């Protein structure tokens, strides 16, 4: 019995440590424009966020579930989307079955920075950069965690030794992450003139990634509001109808 009690205690402590996520700081909460029941995506932030992804994140991370035509939802015109797509080359085959490339078109998915996983790992010291299409939904803490991760790179505290090729991050599990700090002050030049601080770039790219994870969110919320209005009106009508029926029954 004593051994069983000791075993259960150790097991509970281990599970508790895992659940608490010891070794990292919980991400702070942010006031995202899209988080409220009637919240929407800021179109200017979405376009800036795409610019950050395009110029910074896309050098390592793919977004295989997003097509260039989806950028119309961000406020880009049809011509702008075609111009963006043409900047990339898509592998294909010619009539003789030989491997060639062609300019990407609106219907193509975002072009991956690497041809395969082995190439991605070879370029990143063995680490495989995750696809970012659903990253906000795939991580506990969602948008708050992803933003915290982007701004959480610090010098390791005294007494902490990093493994080779690793970087210290306050919010990452275990505090050691293979990804180097991606954002630096003024790293991009926003086309709308917004100052590109690390905080601003993190806000914008996380807004873009949140849209990529849930592109139907705004339509779903609009439908939900219509349903609530309909149900409210229907409930009032049913209330007065039942009152009238009961009056006749009496």
Automatic annotation (TrEMBL):
Q: Where in the cell is it found?
A: Membrane
Q: Which residues are the signal sequence here?
A: 1-21
Q: Which is one Gene Ontology cellular component term of this protein?
A: membrane
| Residue numbers binding heme c | 57, 60-61, 179
GO MF annotations, alphabetized: electron transfer activity; heme binding; metal ion binding
Cofactor: binding details: Binds 1 heme c group covalently per subunit.
Q: List UniProt keywords, sorted A-Z.
A: Heme, Iron, Membrane, Metal-binding, Signal, Transmembrane, Transmembrane helix
Q: Mind telling me what this protein is named?
A: Cytochrome c1
Cofactor(s) named in the record: heme c
Is the keyword Repeat in the record? no
Against InterPro entries, the record matches this protein to: Cyt_c-like_dom, Cyt_c-like_dom_sf, Cyt_c1
Q: Which domain of life is it from?
A: Bacteria
Instruction: List the PROSITE patterns hit by this protein, alphabetically.
Output: CYTC
Q: Which organism does this sequence originate in? A: Candidatus Nucleicultrix amoebiphila FS5
Transmembrane domains' residue ranges: 223-242
Sorted alphabetically, which Pfam families does this protein's record hold?
Answer: Cytochrom_C1 (PF02167)
Q: Which residues form the Cytochrome c domain?
A: 44-195
